């Protein structure tokens, strides 16, 4: 791949306990120009290591993971790597969950049932903005 192209590719890391959801996201996001799915995990511990190893720009994560919640992961990324965009895509959409994610440092919050496409469009918009930078 051309170095100039790879320098502006948005690397997305997927974190969800459900392999089916990760597959669907990988297929949809991987089809977007300027987006590379850089890896995936089902739990927060593996995710943090993978996100950093992949040098991810964007993380799409569910609130519930195989080993608990993603709140600690969101907090850790916000504290140590604030430039990584954190997009929560979850079925746990009560106001308290949304507030907890925002307090932890999530950049976006989407309902997995009704806003799946909106989350994908948000990733596409971020990738387009990165591609448009001089």
Automatic annotation (TrEMBL):
Protein keywords: DNA-binding, Phosphoprotein
Designated name of the protein: Response regulator transcription factor
Domain of life: Bacteria
A Gene Ontology biological process term: phosphorelay signal transduction system
Chain positions with 4-aspartylphosphate modification: 62
Domain Response regulatory: 11-127
PROSITE patterns: RESPONSE_REGULATORY (PS50110)
Matching Pfam families: Response_reg
SUPFAM superfamilies, per database record: CheY-like
MF (Gene Ontology): DNA binding
């Amino acid at each position: 791949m051309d170095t100039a192209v790879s320098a502006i590719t948005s690397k997305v890391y997927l974190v969800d306990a459900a392999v089916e959801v990760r597959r669907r996201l990988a297929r949809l996001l991987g089809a977007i120009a300027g987006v590379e799915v850089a890896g995936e995990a089902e739990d927060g511990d593996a995710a943090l290591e993978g996100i950093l190893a992949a040098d991810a720009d964007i993380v799409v994560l569910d609130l519930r993971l195989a080993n608990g919640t993603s709140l600690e992961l969101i907090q850790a990324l916000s504290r140590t790597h604030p430039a990584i965009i954190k997009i929560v895509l979850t079925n746990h959409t009560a106001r308290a969950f949304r507030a907890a994610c925002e307090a932890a440092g999530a950049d976006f919050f989407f309902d997995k049932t009704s806003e799946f496409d909106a989350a994908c469009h948000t990733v596409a918009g971020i990738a387009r903005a990165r591609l448009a930078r001089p």
